[in-house]
Description:
Layout: H1 13-25, H2 30-42, E1 50-54, H3 58-68, E2 73-77, H4 80-89, E3 94-98, H5 106-116, E4 121-126, H6 131-139, E5 142-147, H7 152-168
Parallel strand pairs: 1-2, 1-3, 3-4, 4-5
Amino acid sequence: MEKQKQVHVRMPHEVYKRLKVKCVYENTSITDYILNLILSSLSQLTEKNSVLIVDDDTIVRESLRDWFKDTYDVTTAPTGKEALELLHKQNFDVLIVDVRLPEKDGVQVLREAKEIKPQIQSIIMTAYPTVDLAVEAMKLGAVDYLIKPIDPYKLEQLIWRTIARTKSGNR
């Protein structure tokens, strides 16, 4: 028999009243309704989403790969050119790209990635931040612009939220 855990939920009384009305209307219990919400939001955990990490710094690239490999299907590339070749061959949910890269810079990679895979969600990272660069990245559709050193916990949360929004249709 599978072990089960109890979960207690606290919510404002007004929210509870609205939830109760909704559950009566939908002929379900509050417990079942909340359980279904939780299960649907966690459905992305049943499939391994894919992440492409592009950074010419081997330590950064491999550290991020090692950090995320248990949660995501991670592919890495040391150059913008190699990243674009991978994008032609594979689908990725999230592209994480450094700005300063050999051959093609991260902004050019982002621009071309959006042409190849318009649905891809991108995160730009740099050790050399500028306002102009941040604005350009956001105009090209970057979800966020991160300044190195990157906190892997925060990046993991950002990836998770980005994928969740994409799967729910709220880009």
